[in-house]
Protein 1
Amino acid sequence: MVLFAAAVARGQNPPGESWNPVVGPPAGAKYAGEKVCAACHIQESDSYMKTPMAQAAALPADASILHKYSRLTFQSGPYHYLISTQDGKSIYSVTDGKKTISEPILWAFGMPLSGQTYMLWHDGAYYQSRVSYFTDVNGLGITLGIPLTPPRTLEEAFGDRQDESIGRLCISCHTTGADVGGVFQPRNSVPGVSCEACHGPGAQHVAAIQQRKPAAASAAILNPAKLPPYELDDFCGSCHRTWSQVVQMQVMDVRNVRFQPYRLQISACWSPSDSRISCLACHDPHQTVVRSTAVYDSKCLACHQEKGGPKLAGHPGPACPVSAHDCVTCHMPRYELPGGHIKFFDHNIRVVRAGAPYPP
Ligand code: HEC
Ligand code: HEC
Ligand code: HEC
Ligand code: HEC
Ligand code: HEC
Ligand code: HEC
Ligand code: HEC
């Protein structure tokens, strides 16, 4: 209960004190662009540009899937879908045999590693496409998380209409620089989570470096490593969803497995002040996720006693009576989202009993 109280208190603060990646900077803030950052921070740039986060959105001209498959089709009940790509332009259309809605794709969201959903504009609003591309089936399928009831109209078959604030949020999480000073200008955005989505607009940082003013350069850019552990979780949570956002959204079933900050914070391992259990303890955001369970053993054993080993000071976690390695395979099981296609590792680290229901 203490943990919950701490999380509630924390939820009232904005994630990060100086910079919220989703709300956007005040008016007048200037972005430098990731190419400028890359000129000096070669190591971070080289590895970061290959990550799914960097590729969280693409314009149709740069979306490799749309070019690899210039015609994608799908049938769902009476509705026939076609995505056709020619000369860097992709048209998404749905027909019931009598009427057709066709609109150009604005962005492809999500890296083709798992799934890709299309953002569209129709009749004065943003729409999330009702069908998405899924890598496991090498083709289209029904988008995850949209209403499962059969569409009543061709518009509903076309996609999920987003009210203004939600459409804006989709774009603010998947692209960089769309929202400056409270003014939403999605055409100015850079597709994907680029350097300045996390570090904040960097033109002032670059200017200060060039003027050889290191203190001013440091003050003009956010280094999230300087945040206390619980604020760091909320910082990542501004896109990956914080504990308080999930409670507010009332997503209290297996669908919340994709919200790692929430899952981690309901685990018995979590502590608001221990950096050994913050996102950065296990992930370098400039690198693709390390897909190997063995690598994480040392992260667990930074806190847990070793099975059969001597009692170590500063290790508040008990030893495992079962195994001394591959901790993640048993204590962070994978769950599939309803609708299939995508699996997530549960960040609610715990003892998993056979047949026990998913702890929401
Ligand atoms: C002209 C070279 C140059 C450019 C361009 C540049 N930086 Fe830096 N940056 C530096 C130097 C030098 C430091 C200080 C390095 C150190 O202290 O180790 C630094 C420090 C940083 C830090 C750590 C700050 C701290 O106080 O902990 C971050 C984060 C950072 N830069 C991000 C960026 C981003 C994002 C961009 C692009 C908007 C960028 N930089 C562009 C040279 C540059
Ligand atoms: C501006 C929004 C945003 C912020 C802030 C953010 N993320 Fe992400 N992250 C995303 C999106 C969007 C994806 C999905 C990319 C995809 O699959 O298309 C993602 C994917 C990831 C992945 C999976 C990548 C892979 O290799 O499979 C990891 C790990 C991750 N983020 C960690 C972090 C951490 C750690 C932080 C905090 C330091 C953070 N993220 C902050 C938006 C964000
Ligand atoms: C609060 C920030 C946020 C908002 C709003 C948001 N996303 Fe994401 N999105 C993420 C993060 C973080 C990930 C990576 C983790 C995950 O897959 O849940 C992601 C992953 C994805 C993926 C990769 C495949 C998948 O389903 O995991 C797709 C596609 C996607 N988002 C589409 C959308 C669309 C379309 C919208 C708007 C209707 C949207 N997102 C709104 C943050 C956001
Ligand atoms: C998803 C959020 C995120 C994105 C995107 C991101 N960074 Fe970072 N960056 C971080 C975090 C978190 C740290 C602190 C890492 C640590 O100390 O473990 C950091 C640290 C840094 C530092 C300081 C390194 C040091 O040794 O002190 C530099 C420089 C930097 N990032 C540059 C970049 C550049 C350049 C890009 C784009 C190519 C980028 N970052 C993209 C989250 C991000
Ligand atoms: C104790 C270690 C640990 C901590 C702390 C941790 N993660 Fe993870 N994370 C993992 C492991 C293990 C995987 C799966 C790696 C693999 O594929 O083998 C993972 C995978 C992911 C993925 C990819 C989706 C998936 O399920 O494969 C995202 C996104 C992610 N973590 C985000 C976060 C965020 C955000 C935080 C902070 C709230 C965080 N993680 C904290 C261990 C950790
Ligand atoms: C920050 C330190 C820390 C880290 C890192 C950590 N744990 Fe823990 N963990 C604890 C503490 C402390 C407890 C005991 C909590 C209690 O008894 O209330 C615990 C409890 C557990 C439990 C029992 C939970 C339950 O529901 O009874 C398991 C299983 C566990 N940890 C596995 C892991 C695994 C696997 C990892 C790595 C992926 C890990 N822990 C990383 C501190 C940590
Ligand atoms: C083969 C599956 C498996 C692996 C691998 C595994 N565990 Fe466990 N662990 C279990 C099971 C099952 C239990 C519950 C045992 C019981 O209560 O009888 C458990 C219990 C625990 C507990 C609770 C102990 C207590 O006294 O309450 C902790 C902590 C823990 N494991 C940590 C770890 C760590 C750390 C690792 C990696 C070094 C690890 N486990 C590897 C299956 C595993």
Protein 2
Amino acid sequence: MSMSSVLVRHSVAAALLLLAGAAFAQAPAQAPAQDAPKNLKVLPKDWTRPQVINVMQNFTAALGVGCEYCHVEKEGAPPDFASDDKKEKDRARAMMKIATDLNAALPTALGEPADQLTRVGCITCHRGVPEPKQIGEILSKTSKDKGFAAASSQYTELKTKYYGAQAYDFSEQGLIATARPLIAQNRQDEAIQFLQLNLTLFPKSAASYVTIAQAQQGKKDNAAAIESLQKALAIDPKNAQATRMLGQLQPKK
Ligand code: HEC
Ligand code: HEC
């Protein structure tokens, strides 16, 4: 092995250790154990099983899945961790490379030394879910495919399962961010439904009324828009956007 490839190998290993948030400083010099990993293509080939498992536990936490999400598990037999039969395992390998590349590119891109920058790990994007979609992307698709009622019960389901897990935004902003792109797509009625749902959860959400007014404006229903803006101002008299929109809708005589 040339010196430079040793260095590369070391920096990749270091990056992956950081990815794992692991405390291992260096691979311990050890005779290969019986259960030593046999099929490592991204992690250093000389890593011991405990080192690999440490990274794996980071994966399961970051994606909110079990080992069997990426590894073949047959009934009554121990999981075959070396097997590459599950496509998710290869996708995870691709993602490991992407995360490593991102971390390698950041110092040059931002002009700061690596140790001063946040490391991008699986959790940075995945936040406890295998498909790191925003709540709005999920609800917008369900609403389009199956209607608002299905999207509304999906919201409740996701909230029951993930509330407090930082996977999705269940704050006042989550459903507003769901509605905004719908207004741009001229799906005004759906946008209003999501915002009304938001108001049942956050009755004092002036921003929801302002966004409803935008959807109503999109429907050319200016009278309704004015009424919504007045509701926004009743909650938050200093709301600049509501004041501005109301000024445009009610030109001075
Ligand atoms: C998100 C996908 C994913 C999850 C979840 C996952 N693994 Fe892995 N696992 C991988 C990948 C990818 C490799 C191969 C890494 C490489 O090629 O360097 C691997 C390799 C391994 C290996 C080494 C196998 C060998 O012989 O080469 C072991 C052992 C292992 N995983 C155990 C686990 C355990 C235990 C869990 C649950 C705590 C788990 N994995 C969860 C993706 C995953
Ligand atoms: C920069 C953001 C980002 C980072 C970092 C990241 N991922 Fe991903 N990952 C994604 C996106 C986006 C997808 C595509 C999800 C979809 O199918 O819509 C994805 C998909 C996946 C999938 C396939 C899911 C499926 O069921 O098809 C796996 C497995 C995965 N990531 C594992 C990982 C692991 C393990 C890490 C850490 C080594 C990681 N990801 C880091 C953004 C990221």
Protein 3
Amino acid sequence: MTNRTKAWLSVGLLAVTILAGLKLASSLQDNAIARQVAGNAPKTSTPPEQVVLPLPTVSTNDESVAGQTLYQEKCGACHSLDQNRVGPRHGDIYDRRAGTVPGFRYSAALQELDLKWSTQNLDAWLQNPSQLAPGTSMGFRLSDAKEREAIIAYLKSVSQDLN
Ligand code: HEC
């Protein structure tokens, strides 16, 4: 072997060593990332007590959050979830038989209305209460279909929470 060949060989060897070193370093780094992802990373990562968990809320989807606001705006003057006011309380209205909230004085129309509140008949009710129950004392209509949908989704979500 000439000196020149030797020189080239050692350059080549050096290059191979460097490449191998880089590869090792990057796989070590991958391991470190994998450990962090797995949650058992050493001191530098966020300790478990700092992990922010979402607080439990009554409603979990966007539609029923919008529904809650709409409910307060449109129905809040007469209804609440937990108290009878001008209208009966609504905390467990979904799937409840019409006219059966204890302690509320319903019109004869509501007492005689023979149905359980579902998405469909709540929608009909909110469009026009007097058409569903002629003689009812609820004199309020909600003409916007999207708003009815959001409010009904909200009432459904709170009712399920109570069950
Ligand atoms: C101006 C007052 C008023 C507003 C506003 C109002 N309600 Fe009512 N609501 C009443 C009254 C009064 C009754 C009882 C009707 C009866 O006995 O005939 C009632 C009854 C109901 C019932 C039947 C309850 C049952 O126990 O069977 C539902 C459902 C209802 N309202 C939903 C709503 C929703 C949802 C809104 C808002 C989009 C709303 N109401 C807005 C006054 C109101």
